[in-house]
Amino acid sequence: MEVGLNWAVFVCGGVFVWLMRRVVNWWVYERVLGEKIRWSLPPGDLGWPFIGNMWAFLRAFKSTNPDSFISSFVNSHGRTGLYKALMFGNPSIIVTVPEACKRVLTDDEYFKPGWPSSTLKLIGRKSFIGSITYEEHKRLRRLTAAPVNGHEALSLYMRYIEDNVVLALEKWAGMGQIEVLTELRRLTFRIIMYIFMSSESEQVMEALEREYTTLNYGVRAMAINLPGFAYHKALKARKNLVAIFQSIVDERRERRKNRPKEDMMDALLDVEDENGRRLSDEEIIDVLVMYLNAGHESSGHVTMWAILFLQEHPQVFQKAKAEQEAIVRNRSPTQKGRLSLKEVRQMEYLSKVIDETLRVVTFSFVVFREAKADVNISGYTIPKGWKVLVWFRSVHFDPEIYPKPKEFNPSRWDGLTPKAGTFLPFGAGSRTCPGNDLAKLEISIFLHYFLLNYELERLNPSCRVMYLPHQRPKDNCLGRIRRVS
Fold it and tell me: SS3 for the chain, per residue?
């Protein structure tokens, strides 16, 4: 009798928990929408009360199979391409198919940036991902994109990038055991610092790079502002970054009075809108926080993965190396061993290697938007005010678009022009990453010299891969860079 009673209590408790899980978030987020919108929402599950789907997300991305998170929606609800969820504290629609991704990223009339408030506190409300107006975004983008894109700008930075790549590889070859990812991040950070600030001391660069490492660990973490948690540490890092940048801005304003414009910092200090308004210190600092972070993290990580993929696929390595050798062999004697932009654009196979690396790694696996009004996509309604998570990983690993998607195969790009919405390493639309040309140039120059003169010996080739905050080997690619004859 007692066993039967305990079993009944257990069953009733389970039913109660299930009902609470289903009802609480429905009551808070869906009940207020009205019957018509409720019935046209995409399928999905808002998860546990208030926590939503974050446990499932973190569990998947801390496992060896991050794609199990989206697979759980597909297995439960079918390949609908849109799913409702509760993510980062907000009711959200996850978008996983090219056509819908393209619409959300390019339709500025109905969608605006929708990053979680926790992320805005870290990156800055006056940055590109913040609460600035569309016109402010266009103005800032116009100002900051020109120095990091286009033929003239890239030609300007090529020598600096090339010199630092050559010196870095020579140095690493003599250091013995290194964390390749850590060293690459330092290299790419030095480059973006040069573009924005021309010259800062080694101490300042090391301090900034250290704080950025801590900041990034908090961007994808749950927003728990308590000691010991990643988000709490990231907030402290943000505070330290702001203090460092404020001192740099103050010192630069004083120096600017009697010197010509030299770098992006000078441009930010001098720019005026049509009404003569200049950027505030907060606006300048938030732009710096965002650009210096984005400008080195992605380049460093993608370069490391490109090296690993090349080493793991000897035929790809040899084909890419042969292309670089041909470029050097066909060089004019007057060129004195320097790369030119024309030569970089002749690296057709290496460009495919980089694109395939960008696809397989998908450095930014998701971006956030917010619906400005009720929007119908693929027969489903995205309610006004709900977040929209454009899930790049699902697109880049769709076997209908990319056969054997987990396989690294640069030759899949032979004669392939991706359809809109199917290849999104830098996003799309008016908010496409403004530094994409610079990033690909950095990666191309590095791989040129690596392929010609070096190889990597990994110490832990079977090291586990981590996926938060970005995909990387747990040991940050511990190994030795060796010079080859």
Answer: CHHHHHHHHHHHHHHHHHHHHHHHHHHHHHHHHCHHHHHCCCCECCCECCCECHHHHHHHHCCCCCCHHHHHHHHHHCCCCEEEEEECCEEEEEECCHHHHHHHHHCCCCEEECCCHHHHHHHCCCCCCCCCCHHHHHHHHHHHHHHHCCHHHHHHHHHHHHHHHHHHHHHHHCCCEEEHHHHHHHHHHHHHHHHHHCCCCHHHHHHHHHHHHHHHHHHCCCCCCCCCCHHHHHHHHHHHHHHHHHHHHHHHHHHHHHCCCCCHHHHHHHCECCCCCECCHHHHHHHHHHHHHHHHHHHHHHHHHHHHHHHHCHHHHHHHHHHHHHHHHCCCHHHCCCCCHHHHHCCHHHHHHHHHHHHHHCCCCEEEEEECCCEEECCEEECCCCEEEEEHHHHHCCCCCCCCCCCCCHHHHCCCCCCCCCCCCCCCHHHCCCCHHHHHHHHHHHHHHHHHHEEEEECCCCCCEECCCCCEECCCCEEEEEECC
Task: Go through the domains of the chain in sequence order and give each one's CATH number.
Answer: 88-483 (1.10.630.10)
CB 108 within 8 A of CB 135: no
Residue that wins the pLDDT comparison between 334 and 356: 356
Residues forming a β-bridge with 455: 482
Known binding positions: 433
Is residue 248 within 8 A of residue 88, CB to CB? The reply is: no
Two structure tokens written together for 269: 């200090």
| Under 8 Å between Cβ of 439 and 357 | no
Burial of 203 per CB tally in 10 Å (0-12, 13-18, 19+)? exposed
Q: Under 8 Å CB-to-CB from 280, ≥6 apart: which residues?
A: 126
pLDDT in tens, 67-84: 999 999 999 999 999 999
Question: What is the rounded CA–CA span in Å between residue 410 and residue 241?
Answer: 39
The CB-side HSE value for 9 (13 A sphere, CA atoms) comes to: 6
Instruction: Look at residue 227 and tell me whether its pLDDT is greater than 90.
Output: yes
Binding annotation for heme? 433
Q: Which two tokens stand for residue 407?
A: 């396989």
Range 137-166 average pLDDT:
79
Residue 11 corresponds to which tokens in the numbers above? 């069953």
> Would you say the pTM of this structure is higher than 0.85?
yes
